């Protein structure tokens, strides 16, 4: 199974069900930080699952981390980033237009 990780700080919620084909019952569940999958080239670890707040067993997860797309760039912690370009869905860049609100030439006071 492939997992498309967009942000390694996100959580993955894992639910474990029994093998009953007609009526699947949940055995337990856990939440795992995706960063656990993305360090040292992958993961090979046991995770405790719980059901209604009680220990329900452990699941063994093994995975391989292989990032795709642009390479990660290490940047200084205080580096600021420019505003990213905003594109319309047709691919043309959006242009910011500044308009000045018209100023009223008089005020009406009612009493």
What does this structure look like?
- By secondary structure, the chain is an all-beta fold.
- Helices cover 0% and strands 32% of the residues.
- The chain has no helices and 4 strands.
- It has strands at 11-17, 26-33, 42-51, 54-64.
- The strands form 2 sheets. Strands 1-2 form a two-stranded antiparallel sheet. It has a two-stranded antiparallel ribbon with strand order 3-4.
- The relative contact order is 0.15.
- Provide a count of the helices: 0
Q: In percent terms, what proportion of residues is strand?
A: 25-35%
Number of strands: 4
Choose one word for the global shape: elongated
Helicity level: under 10%
Rg computed from alpha carbons, rounded to a whole number of angstroms: 26 Å
Give helix and strand order, one letter per element, not per position.
EEEE
What oligomerization state is this entry in?
A: single chain
Q: Could you give the distance between the termini?
A: 72 Å
Largest sheet: 2 strands, antiparallel
Structural class: mainly beta
Mean pLDDT: 78
Contiguous runs where pLDDT drops below 50 for at least 5 residues = none
The strand line-up of the biggest sheet is 1-2
């Amino acid at each position: 199974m492939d997992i498309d990780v967009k942000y390694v700080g996100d959580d993955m919620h894992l639910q474990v069900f029994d093998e009953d084909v007609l009526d699947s019952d949940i055995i337990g569940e856990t939440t795992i930080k995706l960063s656990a999958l993305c360090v040292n080239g992958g993961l090979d670890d046991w995770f405790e699952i719980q059901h209604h707040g009680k220990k329900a067993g452990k699941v063994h997860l093994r995975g391989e981390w292989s990032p795709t797309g642009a390479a990660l760039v290490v940047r200084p912690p205080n580096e600021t980033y420019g505003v990213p370009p905003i594109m319309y869905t047709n691919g043309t860049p959006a242009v910011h237009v500044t308009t000045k609100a018209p100023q009223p030439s008089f005020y009406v006071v009612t009493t």
